[in-house]
Amino acid sequence: MPDRPLTDRFLALAEVKQKVGLGHSNIYRMMADGRFPAARRVGEKAVRWLESELDAWMQACPKAGIEVGIEGEDPISDHIKSTH
Predict the structure, then answer these.
(1) What is the Cα gyration radius of the chain?
(2) Shortest CA distance to 56 belongs to which of 71, 74, 38?
(3) DSSP state for residue 7 in the 8-state scheme
(4) Tell me, what's the pLDDT at 65?
(5) 84 falls in which pLDDT band (50, 70, 90)?
(6) Reduced to 3 states, what is the DSSP secondary structure of residue 11?
(7) pTM reported for the whole predicted model
(8) Residues 6+ apart with CB under 8 A from 75
(9) H-helix or E-strand containing 5?
């Protein structure tokens, strides 16, 4: 049996959406593509996600790759200001 934290728990879709910051359409699309943890069937019409698998997926997501320039510069804010 795989090692899982003792505090591992099942999360409903609403909790998953809040935890990962994605909507249900994106979650199910990414699940179908194999890019998001699969839901577990826990009842005839109920599915849940293991929190530990979501945590691992979040940790495995690549960093955005935004580089900070000289100290005090904020490339994101500078970009927003220059486009408005």
Answers:
(1) 18
(2) 38
(3) T
(4) 81
(5) low
(6) strand
(7) 0.70
(8) 66, 67, 68, 69
(9) none
Give the C-alpha separation, 83 to 31, whole Å: 35
- Mean pLDDT value across the chain: 85
What does the alpha-carbon distance between residue 80 and residue 18 come to, in Å, rounded to a whole number?
Answer: 26
Paired tokens of 6: 């003792």
Asked if 75 contacts 66 with a C-beta cutoff of 8 angstroms, the reply is yes
User: Per residue in 15-32, pLDDT tens?
Assistant: 999 999 999 999 999 999
Instruction: Give the DSSP letter string of 19-75.
Output: HHT--HHHHHHHHHTT-SPPPEE-SSS-EEEEHHHHHHHHHHSPP--PPP-STT--H
Long-range contacts of 41-50 (CB under 8 A, 24+ apart): 42/10, 47/13, 48/10, 48/11, 48/12, 49/10, 49/11, 49/16, 50/4, 50/8, 50/9, 50/10, 50/11
- Find tokens 């970009």 and name the residue: 79
What's the CA angle centered on 22, arms 81 and 5, to 5 degrees? 125
